[in-house]
Each structure stands twice: as C-alpha cells, then as structure tokens.
Amino acid sequence: MKKDDIIKINQLLKTPKQIVIVPHKNPDGDAIGSTLGLYLYLLKHKQNVTVIAPNDYPDFLKWMPGESKILKYEFQKEVSDILISQAEVIFTLDFNALNRTGDMEEALTSSKALKIMIDHHQQPDNYATYMYSDVSMSSTCEMVYNFIEMLGDKNLIDQDIASCLYAGILTDTGSFRFPSTTSKTHQIAGNLIKKGANHSEIYNQIFDNNSYERMQLLGCALSNLKILPEYRTAYITLSQEELNQFNYKKGDTEGFVNYALSLNNIIFAAIFIEDSQNNIVKISLRSKGNFSVNEFSRTHFEGGGHTNAAGGKSNLNLKSTVENFISILSRYKNALNNE
User: Fold this and answer.
1) Which percentage of the chain shows pLDDT scores above 90?
2) Does residue 189 share a domain with residue 71?
3) Which structural domain range is residue 46 located in?
4) pLDDT digit string (tens) for 146-181?
5) How high is the pLDDT of residue 338?
6) Final residue in a domain of this structure, among 174, 207, 240
C-alpha cells in the first residue's frame, strides 16, 4: 500500500467513524478471520464498526472472538441496509469485485462511503478509494497484519486479534503448504503465536470437528472420484441427493477437492456440487505448478480466484456440467501434460 494512503487512512481513523466491514459471499476462514481481526483492531480505536457477512458460514468458524457480533445480510437485510447507507467507511476484505457479495452488491454499489479494499485475488475491480491489493500474499489475514503494522499499531494486536488472523492464515495456506506461503508468512504466524494465538487449539477447532455425517459424505465423494490420465486431471461429483443423504451442512465439503489433487501424476482437480436451491452446480478448482485455474474458471465457469485455487459455477445440470468440463479439457491437453 502506498505510504501516502497509509498516512491518509491513519488520519481518517483518528476520529470515530461509522464503519462497515464486508467479506465475500460464502465466507471462508480467511474472510471471517480477516474481518474479525480488523473489527477487533478498529474497536481499539473507538470506531463504530460492524461486520456484515452476505450469508451464513460453517460452524467450524464460529468460535472466533467477536463472531457473535457479525450480522448476516440474508437474515438481517433491513438493519444491514441502514448500516451500509449510514457508513462513512466500508472495508471490503478477501474479495475485489462487489458482485462477490451476492445480494449485498446493490447496497454496496449505492453507498457513498469511502471504500478500502484489502485483498489478494487477481484482477481487482476499481471501486475502492484505497486499495491494498497483492496477489503474492498468502492470505488477506496476512495483509491485515501488515496493514495494522503499517499504521504503526502492531502493539495493539492482542490474543483475540491474533487468533482470528492466525486462523485465516492457517486455512488459506492449506496449513502452510501452498506455494504462496513465504518465510514472512511463517514469521507473522510466529508473531501471532507470541501474541497469544493457540495454534494447536485453532487447528483443532477448524479441522478436527468433523461430524459422522461429514465423514460419510467424504466417503461418498471419494467413491465418485474419477481420473482423466490423458489430461492429468481428477474430479469429484456430489449430487443434491447425495448431499441430502448425509445431512449436508454448509462447509462440509471444504477441502474435498484436495483429495483429488493429491493423487500421483495429477496436477488439475475439480469438484462439482449440485445446488438445487439455486439451480446451479458449484465448482471448486485446484492445480499444481503454473496451470492457472483462475484463468480457466474465468474463461469457462464465471468464476476466478488464484493461480492454484479458484471457484466457479455452471447453469447446466450436474451431468452436463461434467461433460462440458471434459470437452473443454481437450483445449488444455498440451498445457497440462507439459506442466
């Protein structure tokens, strides 16, 4: 972030403001961790601040300090619209295009508030007055840590803030194994532990809280796993009927696609999840090396994300979506086999 921008934001925060913080729709660990970390920090500046999430999120994220204060737009639209219309400053975290907020897009677009973006995804839209956008960063939580440090307030990071930021870094780095994890990422994680983040307890809260139904659903997903060796690709399907059979809850399929990517000689993986309520198929894509699932998803499935992790959707049925995906792969055969 530019030094001049930091100076202006620092000046902005010297007096109380009406502030709203927004993560993307279907928020993950990085989105919730970064918004709550920033929320708890801004409270220390005596700001009037509210986090408004577009919709609900998995239970394994609801242990974080301050989580009970988050408003959910899908359930609290009226009060949320009032807060957005009255906001003087809106922070948008872990996304860079307002359409990523679903039904909140109209209210955010109409808002006259000064907008500040903190995000690490590719190809940001130009809607914010101040943009801290860096695709090299492991996570938005790492960026919020840097943001607080740039404002000269690292000393204000306490155990609660540290726990939120550590959770987001942990999840978005794949437990520190993704290529975006740097020595600086580890240094920041170490500093957060020094501030009181209990790394083993945070891991347990996020990854070791599985229900019996989720394990059964994973078994079903793995039984549906298919390999396309000529494209070094593997994919998983889950129908709405299968989700219902195992009492699917939001977040239950988190990480399933990584099992496909873990296969020997596979560099591209996908999971296709039927969503009958919205009449779409949700798609998560993962890759190894330089094959960009961000570009693949943007080109073919109305999505985007990072080079090695992206999401998208299809308006076709599940069977047709998979057939379309396989037909598209032929265009990428050389790229996939030369990776």
Assistant:
1) 95
2) yes
3) 3-207
4) 999 999 999 999 999 999 999 999 999 999 998 899
5) 87
6) 207
Q: Cα–Cα distance between 173 and 182 in angstroms, integer? A: 10
As a whole number of angstroms, the distance between CA 135 and CA 180 comes to 9
Per the rule left: phi > 0, alpha: psi between -120 and 50, beta: everything else, 176 is: left
Question: How large is the angle between the packed helices 183-194 and 140-150, nearest 10 degrees?
Answer: 70
Q: Are residues 222 and 200 in the same domain?
A: no
> 242: helix, coil or strand?
helix
Q: What is the C-alpha separation between 190 and 186, in angstroms, rounded?
A: 6
Supply the CATH number for residue 158's domain.
Answer: 3.90.1640.10
- Rounded Cα distance between 231 and 219, Å, is 25
Q: Are residues 34 and 121 in the same domain?
A: yes
Phi-psi category of 174—alpha, beta or left, where left has phi over 0 and alpha has psi -120 to 50?
left
Q: Are strands 226-228 and 233-238 parallel, antiparallel or unpaired?
A: antiparallel
DSSP annotation string for 297-310: HHHHSS-EE-SSEE
> C-alpha angle with apex 253: 69 to 166, nearest 5 degrees?
45
Return the residue matching tokens 């930021």: 165
